[in-house]
Specification:
two-stranded antiparallel ribbon; mainly alpha; two-stranded antiparallel sheet; 161 residues; 7 helices; 7% strand
Length: 161
């Protein structure tokens, strides 16, 4: 089973937010840099995650995003079900219209059951439990975040200034 690119970016953004030191606010640019994805893609994902109630956003110069309480308890299966925009697990359309086998197709039903089994397997996996410190430390180092610091380091500014 393959998830779509939007769901992939959304899950990676949630993992970064879940691992943020001290529930720190992260900018969309921080997250984009962390997950190696263009800002525009991450921005769209963040807007959707906010609509879903999985993140809280603070606007302004010192603003950013953090996981909401709902985001801390959300499961991968639950998130993927909501982000999966496909109405049908199979492409039952051809260049000339619907597949001639579409009526009472047992394959489509079997694929739908398989997709649900995939999500069901991910239902116990809480997104906030996924990132580990060994995994995330280099990611945060790359974007200038270090545990215990209130904000990213800026060029020419020493820690504690």
């Amino acid at each position: 089973m393959k998830i779509n690119a939007f769901a992939d970016v959304s899950l990676r953004a949630l993992m970064v937010l879940a691992a943020a030191p001290g529930n720190q606010l992260l900018t969309t640019q921080n997250i984009a840099d962390s997950v190696g994805t263009p800002y525009n893609h991450v921005s769209k994902a963040m807007a959707r995650l906010r609509t879903m109630g999985l993140i809280d956003v603070e606007r302004g110069r010192t603003g950013g995003s953090r996981l909401s309480n709902a985001g801390r308890t959300a499961t991968v299966g639950q998130i993927l079900r909501e982000l999966d925009t496909r109405t049908d697990p199979a492409d039952c359309m051809s260049a000339t219209g619907n597949c001639p086998l579409i009526n009472e197709c047992k394959l489509r039903a079997a694929l739908a059951r398989a997709r649900e089994a995939f999500y069901r397997e991910l239902d116990p996996v809480v997104i906030a439990d996924l990132p580990g410190s060994r995994q995330m430390a280099p990611v945060f180092e790359m974007i200038g975040l270090r545990p215990g610091l209130p904000e990213p380091l800026r060029p020419g500014v020493q820690p504690g200034q």
